[in-house]
Amino acid sequence: MRAVVQRVSRASVEVEGKTIGKIKSGLVVFLGVGREDGPADSEYLAGKIAGLRIFEDKEGLMNLSVREIEGQILSISQFTLQGDCRKGRRPGFSAAAPPEQAEELYDIFCEKLREQNISVETGRFQAEMRILVDNDGPVTMLLDSKKLF
User: Fold this and answer.
1) How far from 122 is each of 57, 77, 83, CA to CA, in Å?
2) CA 9 – CA 136 distance, rounded (Å)
3) Where are the domains of the chain?
4) Which residues belong to the active site?
C-alpha cells in the first residue's frame, strides 16, 4: 500500500461539481492499494500517518502530528499510485488491487484513522474527482507499507 501525504492549510474534493469532502488544516492522503495488500497494511499506514511529525511546534521544528494539532485528514483512493512506469511510456497497473479489495482496505484505513480520534473526510471510491489542495510548506511525504521507500 502506498500513500502520498501532503500537509495542507485546506483541501476539498468535488464529484460532479459538488463538494463532498472538505478540511481545514491537516493532511491530504492519496492512497493506492496493491494486490498483495491486506488489513495489516491499512492499519500500519493509518498508524504511521496519524503519528507522522510533520507539523511545526512553537520553535518551528516539525515535531507535531496531525493528531496533536487536532487537524483533519482528507483521504482519497488513488489506484494510479500503483502504476509502474519503468518500461515504456504507458503506466502498467497490474500491481493495483481489484476494486472490491481496494475499497475494503481503503475503508479499513479510514476507520483506523477515525479510531485515533482524527476527523476524516473522503472522496468517492471509483469516481472522477477534482481535488483542490492548498499545500502548506510544501511538505509532501511518500510512504509504503512494505517499507520500499
Assistant:
1) 27, 8, 22
2) 6
3) 2-144
4) 78-80
Q: Which residue is it, cell 484505513?
A: 109
Question: Phi and psi dihedrals of 94, rounded to 5?
Answer: -65, -20
Assign a CATH topology to domain 2-144.
Answer: D-tyrosyl-trna(Tyr) Deacylase; Chain: A; (3.50.80)
Q: 108 and 42 in contact (C-beta within 8 Å)?
A: yes
What does the alpha-carbon distance between residue 15 and residue 147 come to, in Å, rounded to a whole number?
Answer: 32
Distance between CA 39 and CA 56 in Å, rounded?
31
pLDDT tens for the chain, 149 residues long, are 999 999 999 999 999 999 999 999 999 999 999 999 999 999 999 999 999 999 999 999 999 999 999 999 999 999 999 999 999 999 999 999 999 999 999 999 999 999 999 999 999 999 999 999 999 999 999 999 999 98
**Which residues, including other chains, have CB under 8 Å from residue 101's CB and lie 6 or more apart?**
33, 35, 37
**pTM, full prediction:** 0.97
